[in-house]
Amino acid sequence: MRTGKQIITEEQSFEGNYYLTVKSPLLVDKKAEGVIELSLDITDKKKEGRCRKERNRNIKPIKD
């Protein structure tokens, strides 16, 4: 946050859940006074993506 720019990361909790996290500086009179953080649980989306990759890996192309 020292740069004053927004940071977007993907994090995993100790319980194994995945979160998309956005951190932004809280500016007061153009001075950083704190941090605003928003986290979205994306665990189900990650699981769907892994299942889709595994399913696609098991599909073999048909040759003429």
Instruction: Please give the radius of gyration in angstroms.
Output: 19 Å
Task: Tell me the major beta sheet.
Answer: 3 strands, antiparallel
Please give the number of β-strands.
Answer: 3
Q: Record the strand order, biggest sheet.
A: 1-2-3
The geometry reads as elongated
Q: Would you list the SSEs in sequence order as H and E?
A: EEEH
* Helix/strand class: alpha+beta
Helix content: 25-40%
Q: How large a portion of the residues is in β-strands, by DSSP E? A: 35-45%
Which parts are unreliable, with pLDDT below 50 for 5 consecutive residues or more? none
Alpha-carbon distance between the termini?
Answer: 56 Å
Mean pLDDT: 84
Number of domains: 1
Number of helices: 1
Structure description:
The chain is an alpha+beta fold and 64 residues long. It has one domain. It has one helix and three strands; from the N terminus they run E-E-E-H. The protein has one helix at 43-58, and strands at 7-12, 18-28, 31-41. Strands 1-2-3 form a three-stranded antiparallel β-sheet, with helices on one face. It starts with 6 loop residues before the first strand and ends in a 6-residue tail after the last helix.
Q: How is the secondary structure organized here?
A:
Blueprint (H helix, E strand, L loop, with lengths): L6 E6 L5 E11 L2 E11 L1 H16 L6
Antiparallel strand pairs: 1-2, 2-3
